[in-house]
Design a protein that fits this description.
The protein has 174 residues and is mostly beta strands. It contains no helices and 13 strands.
């Protein structure tokens, strides 16, 4: 039991002046950190250590890479790398849920979702969004792709009037 105003467990490398890994609590929040200018790596493997996740000294996160900051500066905050054929991200949810990616410029109101990509799973409560991919800009739906492959730009693809159409373009504000 370690107690005090700021309890810390520290592991220090004796021959390096600024190398320390620490775990602790402050203000009711737990933390794991390191001193110095290098990266914090999380490793896996019983017999050989392989770096699974890296947080570099600029706060950039790499999964499968130890150099996330070496990628395009416009998209290097989180880098996922796999050189064994495929790299990817899966957003999983229940059949009644939505999968979302939001592009925010703030944390409240519409600033939290200025742009977005949304997928409504097969049993979503709103039938207008079942198996539907939606792309939004300026907080509004702009493109919808139905599970049947119909595309609506500025309108919903379910408003199609002929079974031969697969694209509908709507007008607004004209």
């Amino acid at each position: 039991n370690i107690s005090g105003t700021m309890p810390v467990i520290a592991i220090t490398e004796s021959d390096v002046s600024d190398a320390e890994i620490y775990m602790g609590m402050t203000g009711g929040t737990g933390y794991i950190g390191k001193s110095g200018s290098g990266s914090l790596n999380f490793q896996t493997g019983a017999t050989s250590t392989a770096t699974a996740v890296t947080i570099d000294n600029n706060g950039k996160v790499g999964i499968g890479t130890i150099t996330p900051g070496s990628y395009n500066a416009n998209a290097d905050d989180l880098v996922i790398f796999d050189d064994n054929v495929h790299a990817g991200i899966t957003i999983a949810g229940g059949t009644n849920d939505y999968g979302n990616i939001y592009f925010a410029q703030g944390t409240s109101g519409s600033d939290a979702y200025r742009g977005y990509i949304q997928y409504g799973h097969s049993a979503t409560s709103d039938a207008n969004y079942r198996d539907m991919m939606v792309f939004g800009t300026a907080t509004l739906e702009r493109v919808k792709i139905s599970g049947a492959g119909n595309v609506g730009i500025g309108t919903a693809p379910e408003h199609l009037y002929s079974s031969y159409r697969s694209l509908e373009i709507g007008r607004s504000g004209v």
